[in-house]
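Whiteboard transcription, Tuesday session. T.W. wrote the structure tokens on the left side:
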């Protein structure tokens, strides 16, 4: 048996590496196990899906493609003449890879600075908190720990009608690696990942069709926001077909023949590339021995309580392998909470205040309850909405689409939901998160002074509108 640790973390994604750093900062002897290996097979890669093939590279491509789109279609009306703007896909991918490399290398530096031991290999939990690590050469080493944190993340779901082939039918990872813009691109799934990746390639010139099995667009999003979002995506040329159930995908003559059924019966389309983005599943392959004492459900999620404890003493699990939204920031918060609890503190993640973001253009972001959730629960509420079309800064930035919507309790005025579609929604939603963390009322935001001219003034106006007091837009008449 090798060294004994206070904490061993399995997985170096946003849940695992953050938990390891925090545990080390709290004075615990900590190791982090990660199996991801560089393309040349020589070195360990930290950061997990998010940094390597998820959040970060996709945001790099979203930013670059948005700038390209704006240069081609938004500059002229602002008096900027830029003719014949071209995209260099190779250079774009180089830029994306450079950002990823910088950030993943940074985690290695943080491990060293905080005294975290990095172990390269596949980690498996055995009974009594023993972690078995198999390195790339097949050598097995066992480590003991007082506490083990499982943070192995998730991987894309593959569906039987469209198995990945890595070239024509790809997952979200493959969609970040195209070496040219596909003429016709199919996307299965109109969720966060499908919409973001579809947007990237549509802006760069692809004809994009998104097929979604359910009938409601973005069912988890407040439907006033979702309907506005759908209109804007359709204006951008995204062909989004709802209620389209995929039945098959076959590659013939370098084209993907896709068959599906919708309200009009059987349909068929041909694409140059097909992205399958129907969600992700927990990555728990060979993670646990049968006697590890950790329970999983039929979908592979590890059972934990509100503090991320499993049923095995001293074993915790965070991030995409446990219940709740598969979000990097949620995983990080759970990682910090678990490290703090191991050190004897008593923090708690407030799951009611975790923001969600879709990084399209416009961005969509929300926290808390939707109007539909409150209606079905029979809770009395009131809403305030303010459009960016009436916001001077949004107009000046040529980004005046969308709105801010605040939902408050009818009696107490406490903010229950905060929803944004529009420019910088991912940043603006943080104001709602902070307000809700402090139990703010809509009146608290209405009485707060916001700088002028800013996009955030729309938050102020939406809060005023909750009680019919918006200044820069006509208020709805109150029912007598």
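and on the right, the sequence the group agreed on:
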């Amino acid at each position: 048996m090798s060294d004994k640790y206070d904490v061993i973390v399995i997985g170096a994604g946003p849940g695992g590496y953050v938990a390891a750093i925090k545990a080390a900062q709290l004075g615990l002897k900590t190791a982090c196990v990660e199996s991801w290996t560089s393309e040349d097979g020589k070195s360990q890669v930290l950061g997990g899906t998010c940094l390597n093939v998820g959040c970060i590279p996709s945001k790099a491509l979203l930013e670059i493609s948005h700038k390209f789109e704006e240069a081609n279609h938004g500059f002229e009306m602002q008096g900027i003449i830029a003719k014949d703007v071209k995209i260099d896909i190779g250079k774009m991918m180089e830029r994306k890879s450079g950002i990823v490399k910088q950030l993943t290398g940074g985690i290695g530096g943080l491990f060293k600075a905080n005294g975290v031991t990095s172990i390269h290999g596949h980690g498996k939990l055995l009974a009594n908190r023993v972690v078995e690590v198999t390195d790339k050469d097949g050598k097995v080493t066992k480590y003991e720990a007082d506490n083990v944190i499982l943070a192995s993340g998730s991987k894309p779901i593959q569906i039987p009608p469209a198995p990945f082939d890595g070239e024509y039918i790809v997952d979200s990872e493959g969609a970040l690696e195209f070496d040219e813009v596909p003429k016709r691109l199919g996307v299965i799934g109109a969720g966060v990942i499908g919409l973001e990746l579809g947007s990237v390639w549509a802006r760069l010139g692809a004809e994009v069709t998104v097929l979604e099995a359910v009938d409601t667009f973005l069912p988890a999003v407040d439907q006033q926001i979702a309907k506005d979002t759908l209109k804007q995506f359709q204006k951008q040329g995204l062909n989004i077909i709802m209620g389209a159930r995929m039945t098959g995908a076959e590659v013939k003559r370098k084209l993907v023949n896709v068959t599906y059924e919708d309200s009009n019966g059987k349909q068929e389309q041909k694409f140059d590339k097909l992205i399958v983005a129907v969600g992700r599943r927990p990555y728990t392959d060979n993670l646990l021995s049968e006697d590890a004492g950790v329970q999983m459900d039929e979908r592979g999620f590890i059972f934990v309580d509100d503090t991320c404890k499993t049923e095995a003493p001293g074993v915790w699990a965070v991030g995409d392998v446990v219940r709740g939204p598969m979000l990097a920031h949620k995983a990080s918060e759970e990682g910090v909470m678990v490290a703090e609890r191991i050190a004897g503190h008593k923090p708690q993640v407030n799951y009611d205040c975790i923001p969600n973001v879709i990084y399209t253009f416009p961005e969509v972001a929300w926290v808390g309850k939707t109007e539909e959730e409150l209606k079905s629960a029979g809770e009395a509420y009131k809403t305030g909405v303010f459009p960016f079309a009436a916001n001077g800064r949004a107009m000046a930035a040529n980004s005046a689409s969308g709105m801010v919507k605040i939902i408050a309790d009818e009696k107490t005025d406490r903010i229950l939901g905060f929803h944004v579609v529009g420019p910088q929604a991912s940043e603006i939603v943080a104001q709602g998160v902070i307000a809700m963390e402090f139990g703010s009322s809509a009146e608290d935001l209405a009485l707060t002074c916001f700088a002028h001219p800013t996009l955030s003034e729309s938050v102020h106006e939406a809060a005023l509108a909750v009680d019919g007091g918006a200044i820069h837009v006509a208020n709805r008449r109150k029912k007598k």
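Someone added at the bottom: The chain has three domains: 4-156+281-351, 169-278, 362-465.
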